[in-house]
Amino acid sequence: MNQISRESLGDAIYDRVSQDLVRGKLRPNQRITIRGLAEALGTSSTPVRDAVQRLLQDDALVQRSVRDVRVPVPSAAQYLEIASIRRELEGLAAARAAEVATSRGITRLTRLTERNQEAITAARWTQAAELNQQFHFALAEIARMPVLLGVLTRLWLRMGPLIAGYYSGAQVDMIHQHHVLIAALEARDPDAARAALYQDIDESGEGIVAYINTFEVG
Question: Residues 64, 132: one domain?
C-alpha cells in the first residue's frame, strides 16, 4: 500500500509540475529544487524526486549539475522545429474545428479570448499566457482530436515556459489572430481557420528567437 501511495503521489506531482510548465507558470532557465517543490506541495522529497526524474526524461526539465535542475532554454533551432510541428498539428485542429465546432465551442473560444484581453489590459501577463494556452488546447478539444491533444501537451511542456516568458517581457498582443480564427469557425471556413492559426504562430517567431538569444546558458 505504501508503494501504491507513493506512486500515486508521484503521478500527482508530475501532473502538477507539467501543468505549470504547459501554462507558463515556470519560466526558461528557472531553477527547480527538490526541497523547494516538496515544501510548496506539502510533501516529502521522495515522490518529488521521482516526478522530477520523469520530467528530465521528457526533456521538460534539464539537469545542469547534480544540484542544478532547471527549466530548459531551447536553442533557436529547437524552437523553430517545434514551432513548425505545432503549426501543422494545430493548423489541422483549427481546420477540423471549423468543420465540426458547435455554437457552444465557439462561445468557449470567444470567452477565452475576452478573458485574455482583460488580462492583457490589466498587465496580468502570466494569466494572459495561461489563457492563450487554454485557447490553443480548446481548439483540439473542439475538433474532437484527443490524440492530437496528447501530442500537443508534450510539445507545450517545452514551449509553455518560452511562450509565456516572451509575452510577459515583450507585452505584445497575443490574440489578434484568435479573433480571426473564431470568425473562420463561425463561417465554417477550414482554410481561413488554418491560415489564422499559421499566422498566430508565425507572428511571434522572430520575437521568440530574439528572446532565446537573451539567455546565456553555459
Answer: no
> In angstroms, rounded to a whole number, what is the distance separating the alpha carbons of residues 189 and 183?
9
* Per-residue CA distances from 208 to 59, 166, 171, 202, 215 (Å): 19, 6, 12, 10, 12
161 belongs to a structural domain: yes
Q: What are the residues whose beta carbons fall under 8 Å from the beta carbon of 76, sequence distance 6 or more?
A: 209, 212, 213
User: Whole domain around residue 139: which residue ranges?
Assistant: 76-212
Q: pTM of this prediction?
A: 0.88
C-alpha cell at 64: 545542469
**Dist. CA 193–CA 65, nearest whole Å:** 44
| Strands, sheet with 62-65, edge to edge from the N-terminal-most edge strand | 31-32, 68-70, 62-65
> Which class for 5: exposed (0-12), middle (13-18), buried (19 or more C-beta within 10 A)?
exposed
pLDDT digits (tens, 9 = 90+) for 66-103: 788 999 999 999 999 999 999 999 999 999 999 999 99
129 and 175 both lie in a single domain: yes
| C-alpha cell belonging to residue 39 | 515544501
Tens digit of each residue's pLDDT (9 = 90 or more) over 20-30:
999 999 999 99
C-beta separation of 49 from 93 below 8 A:
no
Entry field: residues in the chain: 218
| 44 in the same domain as 92 | no
